[in-house]
Write a structure and sequence with these properties.
433 residues, alpha/beta, Fumarate Reductase Iron-sulfur Protein, Chain B, domain 2, Rossmann fold, 3 domains, five-stranded mixed sheet, 23 helices, 11 strands, 53% helix, globular, binds iron/sulfur cluster
Length: 433
């Protein structure tokens, strides 16, 4: 009975937010999924119309509603361009959690989120085990990009060109840090994030190098957890709340001026999604979430805005490396950060920035969207790869490990030798030379 009452309350809250949409259709021009499929149902407007009748539809055809709602990259392009200010991402995430509560999570997801992802120590052990044995099941595809593919097609990997799990994840090399501020007088917490830790540890190492170089003290607790977005995107609010609580406790233990991440999705999740979705009855928890979210910054924003890293006034080297930059949706469209990552490229004497067309067009990753709708995701990724190739660059830089994985896949399929890097790696290389 209390569950039904809770769901009814959630419906009511959603209805108010849905009423803001005027059905103007302006989101059509910016939706990367609609550009591929031309289906009204894939558009924010189509999904919002579906949700208008959610209570009835959910009883009639819960799987159909879920399927339509999950056909979305959660890229936020529609929300960024919506003149009526519809909180599309909030509506979609809340609707997904209502649906998951109503029909239950699939067993495999429940096991993955509640028994693995929500238990960071176990997650580290299991991913280490997979990393050790993965050479038996994969073969290298592209050396410059570090991609591999499955030796035999499996439903999970399909024919993806993926960057494998690192055999030396960041947490293994640097389990924890607790250092005092140096010349900057600033101490930060470093929230690593799962993909940086397990797939792109070199970007996490570059973050530490850069912070140390600038005399920044670091609090990096052991066995860090996930930001929770994979669970929440699938409607699992329970695992999401557990992970938020876990991270609050971890970072609460060390004094810090800012919380830094080098993952656009983690930054967006901690800054915007944690305060929006946390449902705790405890005022103390809500206050801690708000405090942590207010302190959270993307690494490039921290380096430029707080430490004053700026573009070099003259770059004399004749043969500079051509670098293009892809704007992650969660950084540019959701947080308005696009100048600062470019500044890190401008601060490198060996690099020159060449802009690609539509640098802020979504790369098509979308987390679980890539898992469930790989053909669509790959097709959107191919468009991005074409624009990168058109620049004639040697490096494609970005600020999100999920985008790095998608760009690597798309470029590897094009047999390109362009490297994919995080902007913090480029900046770290320039100051370490
Ligand atoms: S979400 Fe915004 S842009 Fe899209 S139809 Fe509704 S009001 Fe228009
Ligand atoms: S979040 Fe992105 S993919 Fe989803 S409806 Fe909006 S623009 Fe389209």
């Amino acid at each position: 009975m209390s569950n039904i009452r809770k769901l009814a309350g959630q419906f009511k809250e959603l209805e108010k937010k849905l009423a803001v949409c005027t059905r103007c259709g302006m989101c059509q021009a910016v939706c990367p999924l609609f550009a591929e499929t031309k289906r009204e149902a894939d558009l924010a407007r189509g999904k919002l119309a579906l949700l208008d009748g959610l209570a009835q539809e959910m009883f009639k055809n819960p799987d159909g509603v879920s399927e339509r709602l999950n056909r979305c990259l959660l890229c936020g392009s529609c929300q960024a361009g919506c003149s009526s200010g519809v909180n599309v991402i909030e509506i979609f995430l809340k609707a997904r959690s209502i649906l998951a509560e109503f029909k239950g999570l699939p067993g495999s997801q429940k096991l993955l989120f509640r028994s693995v992802l929500a238990k960071p120590k176990l997650f580290n052990t299991l991913s280490g085990f997979v990393a050790k044995f993965q050479p038996l099941f994969i073969r290298q595809m592209n050396q410059s990009l570090g991609t591999s593919c499955a030796r035999m097609a499996t439903p999970l990997l399909g024919n993806r060109h993926f960057v494998p799990l690192s055999t030396e994840p960041f947490h293994q090399k640097t389990p924890m840090l607790d250092t005092q501020p140096g010349k900057s007088g600033i101490r930060v917490g470093f929230f690593v994030g799962c993909l940086l830790d397990k797939v792109f540890p070199r970007a996490a190492e570059a973050t530490i190098q850069v912070l140390r170089h600038h005399g920044v003290g670091i609090w990096m607790p052991e066995n860090q957890g996930c930001c929770g977005i994979p669970a929440l995107s699938s409607g699992d609010r329970t695992s999401f709340e557990q992970l938020v609580q876990y991270s609050i406790n971890q970072f609460d233990a060390g004094h810090m001026d800012y919380l830094i991440t080098s993952c656009a999705t983690c930054t967006f999740t901690i800054k915007k999604i944690w305060p929006m979705m946390i449902q705790s009855d405890s005022r103390e928890v809500t206050e801690k979430v708000n405090t942590l979210s207010a302190k959270t910054m993307d690494i490039s924003q921290f380096l430029v805005k707080i430490l004053g890293v700026s573009a070099l006034s003259s770059k004399n080297k004749p043969s500079r490396k051509k670098i293009t930059y892809h704007d992650p949706c969660h950084l540019k469209k959701s947080l308005g950060i696009s100048v600062e990552p470019r500044m890190l490229i401008h601060a490198d004497p060996d690099s020159s920035l060449v802009e690609m067309e539509d640098a802020d067009r979504c790369c098509g990753m979308g987390g679980s969207f890539n898992l469930h709708h790989y053909d669509l995701s790959a097709s959107i990724g191919y468009e991005k790869a074409s624009r990168i190739l058109d620049t004639g660059c040697e490096v494609a830089a970005t600020s999100c490990p999920a985008c790095m994985a998608q760009l690597s896949d798309a470029l590897s399929r094009c047999k390109s030798t362009i490297q994919v890097k995080h902007v913090v790696e480029i900046y770290a290389d320039s100051i370490m030379e």
